[in-house]
Each structure stands twice: as C-alpha cells, then as structure tokens.
Request: fold
Amino acid sequence: MKHVLPATDPSEQCRPARADAGLRAVLYRSEATRPMAPPALAALVAEAEVRNRAAGIGGVLFHDRGVFLQALEGPAPAVERLLEALRRDPRHGPLDVLADRRPARRAFPGWNMPLAASENVRRAALHLPPRLIAALHGAPERLPALMAAATRACAGQGARAWCPEADGALAAGALVRLLLGSAGAAEPGRADALVAAVAPGRRDLAGLLEAAAEAAGDLWIADRCDGRALALALSGLMGIWRHRARENDLAPRPGLRALVAMLPGEAHLIGAVIKAELLRAAGWEVAKAFPADTAALAAAVRAHQPELLVIATSRALPRLDGAALSEAIDAARAARPSLRVIAGGRSLRGCPERALRLGADASCLNITEIAAIAEALSGPSGTPAASRD
Reply:
C-alpha cells in the first residue's frame, strides 16, 4: 500500500513546478533474464537509440555479461514513460534505481544511448577498461567510482563528465543499500569503506549523510522499505557520523551561543545532530534539545539564552506541520525576543521562502550550509545581529 505523508496546509506549500518544466536524470541497474548474444544486444541498442531520439532522451548504456547499468536524462514525463516501459520489458529483471534527480543541465548532450562495454564487444561505441567493467558485478559501493571514471572517458568523446551531484546521489543510494542489506542487516565495514572513499572531510560527510537520509526516505515513500527499515538506515547513518566526524573544533567565540532543537514531535534526529556538530566546528557554543512540546522548547531557550535557534525537521521525509513550526518559533521568541531562528529539513528544500512565512529568519536548504547561514545572521564582531523587523 502506498505510504501517505502527513498532511500540511496547502496555503503554505510552494507552487509545484510543472512536470515538464525540466530535466530528469535516472540511473538504474538491472540483469538480463536470459543470455544476450551480440546480435540481440545490437538490436536492443538500435531500438533504444531510435526511441530515445524521438523522445528527447539521452544517456549511456553500460553492459557486461547480462548486467545493465543505464543513465537516462530527458524531459521528466518522457523519462517516466520510458521507465514504465522498461519495467514491463521481459528481457531484464526488476530495475534497481540508484539515482533519481532533477539536474540543471544534461551530462550527455547529443547522446541517444551509446553502448559502453568491454573491449571485446565490437559493436560498443565506448570501450571501457576491464577494471571498470568489473565494477558492474561488484558491490554497490564500487559504482560511484565506475560512473566517475567511465564518464571521464566519455568526456573525451563528446560527453560532459558525470555531474558532481550525481556522484553524491549515487554514493548516497549505495550507502543506504549497504546499511539495509538484502535482509535488513547492516554492513558497517563496507559502508565505512564507501564513506572513506567519497567523503574525506567532515563537511563532505555531512553532505553525503544528508543525501543518504533522503535516499532512505525515498525508499519508504516508494514502499520499498518499511518504517523499521527506515529507522535502521537512519540509525546506521548516525553511527557513521559519530564514528567518522572527528576533527578539531574551534574554541567557542564569545557571544556565539546556539541551540539546536528538533521540532516538537519530530523523531528523525540525524539532521539536528549534524548541524550541532558543524556549528561547534565553526566556533559556536552549542546546546542541543529534543523537546516534547513548545513549552519545553521555550524552557530550553530560557535556560541556554542562545543568540541563534536552529529548528530541525526530518531530513528523510518531506513532511512538515507548518502550524507546529510557526507555534514553536513564536514560543521561542516569547522566551527570548532577540532570538534569530533558522529552520531546516527536507520539506523546505524546494521552498525556502516557506520558512520565512512561518516566522524564521532563514532556511537551511543544505545541511553543509548551516555554519555560513548562522554567520550571516550574527554581527561582524560575534554579537547578535539586529532583531527581525
């Protein structure tokens, strides 16, 4: 049964973008249901090129020994129709969608769907080294490296390099799959190896875990995992953060006191924990609160007397009770009128002005930006900036 997200006030929602307003890029992996001889593979590629050219869809198809990895990009409705057709195609099994995003530009302009394969496939348009082809058959944490290296090779033949945000989305999807495992069991060693390869610094790690939390939420929304599995994935991400985010923090600067609090009733804690650590690393004296209600939030503000309040909502699911957020902000400001407030969470990513309408001074769209946003709201000497008008 399709999951239903908690309802929100329609008047507070951003006007949704038209479905055909931009590009959609999808990367999926699948396996052939039966061996494909060279003529059958050539026919499949020729069919795809004709169909995709007519639909305005581009990309590249990787294949080796019955395993497919396909990058698709084009108008969102056309990509959705193609995915529906591919899911019904008896020539391959279920699609494992590794990345699904809305890019600002094409990574493969002018490419209808060339075949990338090993050097012994004479009909392939792109010949890739064996070590890259081998990644198609390996663990999912190897796929980000495959895409990065393969598209660098493609770049010399007319395609742009794979967009950095796609590397992040692919790595995040691979990380969530490692944490969940085929039977719901975590695989911390392989997950740690993936994190070490793609997120060397604490800020990189924060961005990767934010994307992974969203990827886990996408699996829940699509009914590909249940609530227990979602909680397991988020718990695993929290464990990775605590294990790897070890850098020297700056000494707190005078007058920079922040309180990072969950919106009362929110159970997904990872965004609040990461934001608190990033602020501490930037020289803020940080306290954390997980209030049960707005009265508890106001009490925490009175106890800590912060200049800045960061209210965190779910990083995994696009849910937000606007009335609850507005009430929380009002209660906090009643406890400390000069308080500056930043609101963050997945629900605000596509609609930053919504946080302002609900009473915040700023919204945090990407978790790695929290320190810069906090700095902009504070005075140049470390004193609080002027209160809201």
